[in-house]
Amino acid sequence: MRFGVPLGLVHPGVWRELAVEADRRGFESVWLPEHLVFATDLSTARYPGTDEPGIKPETPLFDAPAYLCALAAVTERVRLGTAVYLHGLRHPFVSARAFATLDQISGGRAIAGVGAGWYEGEWIAAGVDFATRGRRLDEAIQVSRRLWTERTVEHHGEFFDFPEVAFEPKPVQSPLPVLAGGESRAALRRAAFRCDGWISMPQTLDGVRPKLRALRELRAEAGRLDEPFDITVHAYGLSGPDEVAEWERLGVDRLIVRPWRRTGEAVRCLGDFAAEHGLQYS
Q1: What is the pLDDT of residues 134-164, one digit of tens each?
Q2: Which CATH number does the domain housing residue 44 bear?
Q3: Has residue 151 been placed in a domain?
Q4: SS3 per-residue string spanning 82-117
Q5: What is the pTM of this model?
Q6: Which of 195, 194, 229 is nearest to 212 (CA)?
């Protein structure tokens, strides 16, 4: 099992320290969430499955790939991912460039976790139709993959249209992994048909089982059951090594864990978790 660290669940003031500790202690990856902007009008901010706003407009926001570039400079092995980046909210030139840059600077450690998004307010603020977000993301993934791998690219699609361009430098990784986040049927289909893996919302063993069954069915439909596929689950309530074995039996490849309750204890608890689960770099 590989273990990831959700940096977005602590104060940004300790992101650097926590990433360095994760790198030192043998964690496989660190992850940043992403939003472009928050509107002060909360009428469009109800988080799915709740009656509460999912945002606070005063929350500080950072450009996630740019911040991960800074973390790449102070780490050596830990992978650097987004969970998740609104890849379709920007032109693919912008998104593809951001991740190619991160992959170059990190020496091939980038993971592009992408999602369609749930928060309508930032799409309204950016002047982009929220209802088209899924189709925009699908097209943006297609275009980005071509920009990352082909010598020249020309594209004429529903949302993006451009003449032949060159895109250099390419990412170090070929392919640069793209994981789809979300638990809707559309998000699971995107992961199964278009991406290299899937990222869950915070989940339990019982809650994730139907999602994994659906993913397998969709991958079979896509004819991709024999291809590598990376399954990542946010498992914040992990009880210990015995539970890890249960996740492994389900076919989960990576758990994003939060072994702390408060920011002030995050670094110490990360070390305790590493010792309990025998993490180390060879």
Answers
A1: 999 999 999 999 999 999 999 999 999 999 9
A2: 3.20.20.30
A3: no
A4: ECCECHHHCCHHHHHHHHHHHHHHHCCCEEEEECCC
A5: 0.96
A6: 229
